[in-house]
Every structure is written in C-alpha cells, then in structure tokens.
Amino acid sequence: MRTLLERVKEGGLPRHVAVIMDGNGRWAKAHGLSRTSGHQAGALAAERLIRFVGSKLELPYLTLFAFSSENWARPQSEVAFLMDLLTDFIRTRLAELVDAGVQLRVIGDRERIPSALRDQVADGIAATADGERLHLTIALSYGGRQELAAAARRIASDVVAGKIRPGDVDETAVADRLETAGMPDPDLVIRTSGEERLSNFLLWQSAYAELCFTDVLWPDFVPAEFLRCLAAYQRRRRRFGLVEGMET
Ligand code: FPP
C-alpha cells in the first residue's frame, strides 16, 4: 500500500501553502501548562513542519503566521516572550536552515519589533539569501489591511512623483507594492484549532486560495495532518471563476 506521503507527492503539490498557526494557548490549558509553554510547543511544531516540507516535499513556498498586528494587544509579558522565542528560533536554527536550502523572508511591520529580533531577522535573511529549495516566509507583526494601506501609500507617492499615472493602477501595480511581491499567491491556506477565518492574513494574496480548517491545535500539528490538508486540496477543483475544464 502506498503511503499518504507517496500519494500526495503524486497528486500534484501546490506551489505555496500558508499556515495560520492557532491554538497554542488552548493546547497549554488542556495540558495544565502556562501559555508560554504552549508557544514553546508551537515553535517545535513550526520547526517540525519546516523540516518536513524542506526534506520530503517539492513545495517551494511555505508561509507561517507567527505574530499578527493585533497580537501586540496581548499582555506585555506574553508579547515579550514571543519576541524572545522568535529571536532564539532564528538564531538557533539558522545553520540548519542554510544547510537545508531555505531562503528566509519576513513580512510585517519590522519597525515595531524589538531591535534584537530585528537584527536577528536581518542576519537570517542575509545568511539564507542563496537558499533555493524552500522559500520560508514568516509573517511577523503582520496584518493584511496594514499591508494594503502601505501599498496604497506607495502608489500615491509614485503617482505624485510622476512614476505611474492613476489610470495605470491595476492589480499588478498593487501586487508589486505588497511585501509578498515576487512570490506566488498561496494556493492553500491552512488554519488550525477549529477557527474558520482569515484574521487579516494575506487578504489580497488569498483571493483564490483553497482553505483547509482543522480542529488540531497548533502544537499537535504533525506532518501527517499537513499531508491530509494537501490531500484535501488535491481533491478540490480550482476554477478561478471559470467554468469546469477552462482553468488550465
Ligand atoms: C496562536 O496561538 C499562536 C500565536 C499567536 C503565536 C504563534 C507562534 C508560534 C507558533 C511560535 C513560533 C513560530 C515560529 C515560526 C518559530 P494562540 O496563542 O492564539 O492560541 P489560543 O487561541 O489557543 O489562545
């Protein structure tokens, strides 16, 4: 019998999967642990997924939602813990990321994050710049509406500077000014923990994404669950607004 991994690999993989990692707090509560322990377990789940995608699948783009623009409103101690966790995560895994051919990208408002994390992000991006196997994007202090507002500001500046005429502002002009410029749109967005919404994640880019919601809490998200989402994606017919048969 062929394994799920073999079947998924034969079924045609998406180019870009984006993941809303949700449920660390509920996982911690269910195990009688602190929320911070839940985030630590969540970081291990992220590491497990990156390692799996990087080593077992030809899936060139993986994007993880690590911290939203709205998450700044959490208790200051939890925010500080998450910033330290992300700093340590990049620092301690950097050599492995380079060896695995990962190219790191970070989207979001970098001005708001502590300088230690900002510096670590810059180091990580520089060190992994030649990676070609997996484009790993971490959304950090990220919000889709904020990203779109920033793109609108850039367009307005370019219009004022005479670089582009208002009538030339089309979808490409917007996409080129998003932080994801140059990346393919996500084909599949996965959200864990039973919540079924996008929560301001890649709003423009997810216009035609398939969505996979799973009840699994993020720290329990194992590669087999990821494969089940890919298998569900493969069973869907993506029509991009066309009629059956026209899409390819
Ligand atoms: C959602 O769980 C998770 C977060 C807000 C933080 C995500 C961070 C990680 C998974 C750790 C590090 C990530 C990387 C890429 C190394 P929640 O706290 O909202 O859970 P709850 O809804 O159950 O309270």
Bound compounds, each kind once, are: farnesyl diphosphate
Q: Work out the radius of gyration.
A: 19 Å
Helix content: 40-55%
Structural class: alpha/beta
Name the descriptors.
248 residues; alpha/beta; Undecaprenyl pyrophosphate synthetase; 8 helices; 6 strands; binds farnesyl diphosphate
Please provide a written account of the structure.
By secondary structure, the chain is of the alpha/beta class. It has a single domain (13-234), classed as Undecaprenyl pyrophosphate synthetase (3-Layer(aba) Sandwich), CATH 3.40.1180. It has eight helices and six strands, in the order αβααβαβαβααββα. Helix 2 packs across helix 3 (35-56) and helix 4 (76-99) packs parallel to helix 5. The radius of gyration is 19 Å and the shape is globular. The model has no long low-confidence stretch (mean pLDDT 96). The structure holds farnesyl diphosphate.
Write the layout of secondary structure elements.
Elements: H1 4-10, E1 16-20, H2 24-30, H3 35-56, E2 61-68, H4 76-99, E3 102-107, H5 115-127, E4 134-142, H6 144-160, H7 171-175, E5 188-191, E6 210-213, H8 223-235
Parallel strand pairs: 1-2, 1-5, 2-4, 3-4, 5-6
Helix pairs in contact: 1-8, 2-3, 3-4, 4-5
The structure holds farnesyl diphosphate.
Residues 21-26, 39, 42-43, 46, 64, 66-67, 71, 82, 85-86, 89, 138, 193, 218 line the site of farnesyl diphosphate.
